[in-house]
Structure formats: C-alpha cells, structure tokens
Known about the structure:
This protein is an alpha+beta fold. It has one domain (18-158). It is built from 5 helices and 4 strands. Helix 3 (72-93) packs across helix 5 (144-158). The chain starts with 19 loop residues before the first strand and ends with a helix.
Amino acid sequence: SICFVRSPIIDYQPDVPVDIVLALHACDTATDEVIAQTVRWDAPMLICIPCCHHDLNHQISSEVFRPVLRHGILKERLADILTDTFRALALRIMGYRTDVIEFISSEHTARNLMIRAIKSTEPGQASFIREYKELKSFWQVTPHIERLLGPSFTALLQE
Length: 159
C-alpha cells in the first residue's frame, strides 16, 4: 500500500519494510537524504528525480577548469553532473545497480534526470570505490551523500 507522510526525510522511520522509495524533485541535499534512507532501510528499489544542486557548487574549484567555473551557469551544470555522479557511485558502492537516465524531454524541464537503483549485490565493489575516490580526489570535495551514509560507507572507502 502507499503511504504519504509529512516529515523531514532523514528523520522518517517506517513502521514496515519499504519496497520502493520514490522522490520527485527533492531539492539540493534532500535527494542525498532520500538516497541515505534508501540504503539504511535496505529498500530494494529507488526512483529519484533530483532537483537543484547547491552543495558541490560551493565546493568545486580547479585551475584546469577555471574557464568553465568562471561562468555561473556552466559551474552550476558541472556541479549538477558531479553531484549526480557521486550519488550514482555511492549507490553502486552500497550494492545497488544504478542508472542515471533522462526521463522526460529537456524541452519540458531542464531537471529531467532520474536516478534508478535496484539492490542487486553486496556493498563494496572495488572498481566503484576506486572511481569514487579518484573523482573526489580530483575535485577536492566531500559530497553530502558521503556524510549522510556515515561510517558504513566511510569504512568501504578505506578498503
């Protein structure tokens, strides 16, 4: 059955096991909260439509990418791509088969990406951990999803 609850995402604790987590246009770090809760609840499926992305926009800097980053709109779009890449990698590290797809034409909305994740394996696949760490090291950022996933995720990154 479907249940609608008004609550901060990160504080919500379901009374029964969750089958599917669905989030439509969860702004900024609310998407990260949805992903973290999906993992905590061991939900078998996530369908998430991210919205605005501000957290990494304030963190990213790079001499190499200075020509891109000096333009606000280009920096914003790069931060969007990086944020959703970190989210997808974090889900993969936590054992979810993950795709980032366009779910509606960009003529209707620029916010047209969907993160689709299905629990499929054990956490800790080395190739995804390596990719995550390399991307994080290159950009010198700490994605919010990493902080929300906490010690279990951090421990996997140390392997």
